[in-house]
Amino acid sequence: MISPDNRIADMAKKARMAAAELARADPARTAAALHAAAGAVRDSASAILAANDEDLAGAHDLAPAMRDRLRLDAARVEAVAAALDMIAALPCPVGEVIDTRTRPNGLRLERVRVPIGVVGIVYESRPNVTADAGALCLRSGNAVILRGGSEARASNRALHQAMTAGLGAAGLPEAAIQLVDDPDRALVSAMLRAAGGIDLIVPRGGKSLVAAVQAEARVPVLAHLDGNNHVYVHHAADPAMAEAIVLDAKLRRTGICGAMETLLIDADYQATIPLVEALLARGCEVRGDGRAQALDPRIRPAQAADWDTEYLDAVCAVAIVDGFDAALGHIGAHGSGHTDAIVTEDAAPARRFLAEVDSAIVLHNASTQFADGGEFGMGAEIGIATGRLHARGPVALEGLTTYKWVGRGTGQVRG
Questions:
Q1: What does the domain layout of the chain look like in residue ranges?
Q2: Which CATH class is domain 229-370?
Q3: Residue 306: CA atoms inside 13 Å, Cβ hemisphere, count?
Q4: Quick one: pLDDT at residue 254?
Q5: How far apart are the C-alpha atoms of 238 and 260, rounded to whole Å?
Q6: Is there a contact between 8 and 190 (Cβ–Cβ < 8 Å)?
Q7: Is the Cα torsion angle 269, 275, 280, 285 positive or negative in sign?
Q8: Burial, 256: exposed, middle or buried (Cβ in 10 Å; 0-12, 13-18, 19+)?
């Protein structure tokens, strides 16, 4: 019996060979592969939905938000195919010259984008990640090893088949996009130990998954932590705009990382009660501090943990804050560095918020649910990185590249 370490090492070896071929492939071929994969997704939509039904039937214990992430329907399958077409249409970043300089001795230096190499992605629930991640890695010249959650095993397999059909149609190696189609947790551990075989690990899932990956990995990790996101309604906010943004940020889709989890309302805001009532009327459970509870008897008391919780559900923590600095203090103490927004018609606090809130994405007068690579014009995303190294915010094609220096001389020596 082949050990998990040897199985992953074999996959990584094949991926490395595929990555070398991708790095020198004409970008038109990767675009053709993605368009072909999009066609395969559309052609096999019924099979993909049947596989998803199989997964849903076995996912009785999943929380509602996780079931929503797992669920596919005709519109979501079409969205997967459309994302593949969109990524295919994006410029390939490989070979882009980031900057140039010429030294006094005439030596010309260029910093050029190159693929990372072999990327490993560990993810939960969302089968669309199989297609999105495979496409983004392919378009940026990387080979990828995918390991989805066991709850989405049939859906991931069906989508992976469409991706490999696209590779075959374009004459690219199928090993460029590999799927670990085995629920054995030891294979994940083997991926995390595969230094030298896998160049980067990207975890996509809940806080516990990311923390476990970071604790165990011997391969560099591009972390996507929880989205404990805030909307701060400043006293100069337009009430109609504030209500529309808050409802969308919290309730458009509660199970995504861009959803608002805490609403901060300025103590001097004049339309606080209608704003909170709008959330309650939509079926959102509201947990508030003392001043928020006084607004409506349906508001439950917030516990200390509520300010640090990513609910991924129709639950919202609400705090009344004494001005701008108190709002920033709350975000600094409890935010996860993902996405935070201010609603105000006053340009001065908006400028301060955008400059001073240390999150990967900061927004003025817009819903936090725009925290999405597709909404940023990236086609799709690997995840939203909340760290400070290499990439931050939605990670798409450029975030899946590194660079090398290229020097062109005329015989210069350093004597």
A1: 4-222+382-408, 229-370
A2: alpha beta
A3: 17
A4: 92
A5: 19
A6: yes
A7: negative
A8: middle
What's the pLDDT score for residue 294? 95
Task: Give the pLDDT confidence score for residue 387 in this predicted structure.
Answer: 82
What parts of the chain have a pLDDT lower than 70? none
pLDDT of residue 7: 97
| Amino acid 210: pLDDT | 86
The owner of tokens 């969205």 is 79
**Residues 89, 91, 95, 97, Cα dihedral to 10°:** 180
**Per-residue confidence (pLDDT) for residue 167, from 0 to 100:** 96
Q: How far apart are CA 112 and CA 408, in angstroms?
A: 13
Q: Which of 369, 378, 313 is nearest to 341 (CA)?
A: 369
- d(Cα 257, Cα 336) in Å, to the nearest integer? 11
CA distance 349 to 141: 42
Q: Determine the Cα–Cα distance for residues 369 and 376; give it in Å rounded to an integer.
A: 11
What are the phi and psi torsion angles at 61 (to 5°)?
-90, 0
Helices (H), 24-100: 27-43, 45-57, 64-70, 74-89
**pLDDT for residue 226:** 81
What's the start-to-end Cα distance of the chain, in Å? Answer: 58
Cα distances from 398 to residues 84, 222, 390, in angstroms, run 17, 14, 10
Task: Return the amino acid letter for 165.
Answer: A
CATH topology match: 4-222+382-408 vs 229-370 = no
The closest alpha carbon to 15, from 106, 119, 110, belongs to: 119
CA–CA gap between residue 76 and residue 404 (Å, rounded): 38
Alpha-carbon gap, residue 30 to 22, rounded angstroms: 8
Find residue 383's DSSP bridge partners.
395
Question: CATH top-level class for 4-222+382-408?
Answer: alpha beta
Q: How many residues does the chain have?
A: 415
Question: In the prediction, which pLDDT does 386 show?
Answer: 86
Structure-block tokens of residue 231: 């909307």
pLDDT at 373: 84
Q: Computed over its alpha carbons, how large is the radius of gyration of the chain?
A: 23
CA–CA dist 205, 215 (Å, integer): 15
**Which are the contacts of 72, defined by CB distance < 8 A and separation ≥ 6?**
48, 49, 52, 127, 128, 155
